[in-house]
Design goal:
Length: about 425
């Protein structure tokens, strides 16, 4: 008689260690137990599907060997119920059967069986099927472990994302505080500001400062890039043009230790460029339109450092764009800037704006451009004024964009309505230039 091969050292990857044998025949149970224990497996026995389910719940076997034909609950029904059990570990299921027709095999696969063995069971074939099952179980468990690791990593990332999101929300609040006043009446004129970042925070900044009753500094700034880095630069520049701390404002200089006078805008741009370009490791630069306004005479002195040209809408409906470009601030060391001078008259409007307006892609696939902005602004100005005018322009922009659900760039604007209010005499006198 030929000796049976020794498989005691042939346990594969070890993914299968506990085996449940289900059969209503005690003889078959004894035969299967003998073979499996010889190969080093821990063996459980069940004489019915109901008992087998209880064992599965308690012991969670790695492999189930179940007879097909059993009373009360056959192997197919047992397999279905076994697959319905919730377990973190995949169990390999082999049906023992004398059936071999394709239709019956398909039934077994539909019920959740992984493999089949024809009775009487051959030891070599059983060992080969178990080895095949071990490979499947091993790969499945490795995959489950990877999925668990990925899930844990995603949970950690979600926590980090929530923390970052909370920080960004707070940063947005802080950045919005850089523009504390969105509308101000100065003498007989009115200033309105709009700031709409495309994300939580952005690189646009608009603002104003007032060194005297009828003196006004008005600016629109666009820092290169988006996000946190750009927002940090805007926060720093806001300090350089502070309305609350004139001694820190580079656009102002103290005269006779009594009052602050406005520097020439070209000098202001030069000083800002010196400060930004001197910072090591800072690659961001900014464009700026800054206007020093005399609201008594209507004289406007302006520097345009690579920024969009200010739009002037005259009271008679005529539109003008002021400026011819210039280099951005913080891009090149030791740069001088050109200065422009023009006058506003009663009822004229001046708009400083970022390229988030003119470079917005509209429904036709083309950018709004300066002509499109002039038309939109003129139409809105005919029916609205003050902050409502800016909000109306912004609303019409977003409604006409190709993607109206999200901004492709930060959008900001500063509006000066010159000599549109009645003269007020309820002000406190201030020393001025």
């Amino acid at each position: 008689m030929q000796a049976e091969p020794d498989h005691s050292q042939d346990q594969g990857t070890g993914a299968i260690q506990r085996v449940l044998v289900v059969d209503d025949s005690r003889l078959q149970l004894r035969i299967m137990r003998t073979m499996l224990e010889r190969w080093g497996f821990e063996v459980f026995e069940a004489e019915s599907g109901a008992i087998a389910l209880d064992i599965c719940i308690e012991s969670d076997p790695d492999l189930v060997l179940s007879d097909w034909m059993m009373p009360e609950m056959d192997g197919l029904e047992f397999c279905r119920r076994y697959r319905e059990l919730h377990s973190d570990r995949y169990g390999y299921f082999i049906l023992l059967t004398s059936k071999s027709e394709k239709g019956e095999v398909a039934q077994g696969l539909d019920a959740g069986a992984d493999d089949f063995l024809t009775k009487p069971v051959n030891a070599n074939e059983l060992r080969a099927r178990i080895n095949a099952g071990e490979r499947v179980v091993s790969m499945q468990r490795q995959l489950s472990e990877k999925n668990r690791e990925v899930s844990e990593a995603l949970e950690e990332l979600q926590k980090v994302h929530e923390a970052i999101d909370n920080d960004l929300r707070q940063a947005r609040t802080i950045q919005q505080s850089l523009v504390p006043e969105r509308v101000m009446e100065i003498a007989t004129s009115r200033v309105s500001l709009l700031l709409q970042p495309c994300g939580h925070v952005g690189g646009d900044l608009v603002g104003m400062f007032r060194p005297g009753y009828d003196r006004l500094g008005l600016y629109s700034i666009d820092v290169s890039g988006h996000g946190i880095t750009s927002a940090m630069v805007t926060a720093r520049v806001a300090g350089y043009l502070s309305s609350n701390f004139p001694d820190q404002n580079v656009a102002l200089e103290k005269r006779f230790d009594q009052f602050y006078a406005m520097r020439e805008p070209a000098e202001t741009a030069y000083l800002l460029n010196q400060r930004l370009s001197a910072d090591p490791g800072v690659e961001e630069y900014l464009t700026m339109a800054y206007v020093a306004s005399d609201l008594r005479s209507g004289r406007m002195r302006m520097v345009q450092a690579g920024h969009s040209p200010p739009l002037v809408l005259r009271a008679n409906g005529q539109v003008e764009f002021i400026g011819n470009g210039g280099l951005p601030i913080g891009l090149v060391d030791d740069v001088s800037y050109d200065q422009h001078e023009f006058f506003l008259k009663k009822g004229d409007l001046m708009l400083l704006y970022s390229d988030g307006f003119t470079e917005a892609v509209m429904e036709g696939g083309e950018m709004l451009g300066e002509d499109g902005l002039a038309k939109m602004f003129s139409e809105c100005a005919a029916v609205a004024s003050g902050p409502e005018l800016l909000q109306d322009v912004f609303w019409r922009l977003t409604q006409g964009m190709q993607d109206s659900t999200s901004l492709g760039d930060d959008v900001s604007a500063a509006l000066l309505e010159f000599d549109v209010l009645e003269q007020s005499f309820g002000f406190e006198p201030v020393q001025m230039e």
